[in-house]
Specification:
By secondary structure, the protein is mainly alpha-helical. It is built from 3 helices and no strands.
């Protein structure tokens, strides 16, 4: 898993936010015992602080990739 570490006084770049969103989706997928529908995944992404369309898509893609079974 990729972790992006950055100084707190510097705002995250777009790429870092996308990686962070994907990582958050992976983390959630590991903790889930069953699949989650896409609408619920998008809602969870927003609750986690990902509001940009690309960030939400990365979050949902991580869930889809890790919960394919």
């Amino acid at each position: 898993m990729t972790r992006v570490v950055r100084p707190e006084n510097r705002p995250a770049k777009r790429t870092e936010r996308l990686i962070s969103a994907y990582d958050a989706g992976c983390q959630l997928a590991r903790n889930l015992r069953s699949r989650i529908d896409e609408a619920k995944a998008r809602e969870v992404a927003r609750q986690q602080g990902y509001f940009e369309r690309d960030e939400i898509n990365c979050f949902v893609a991580a869930l889809r990739n890790h919960c394919s079974g």
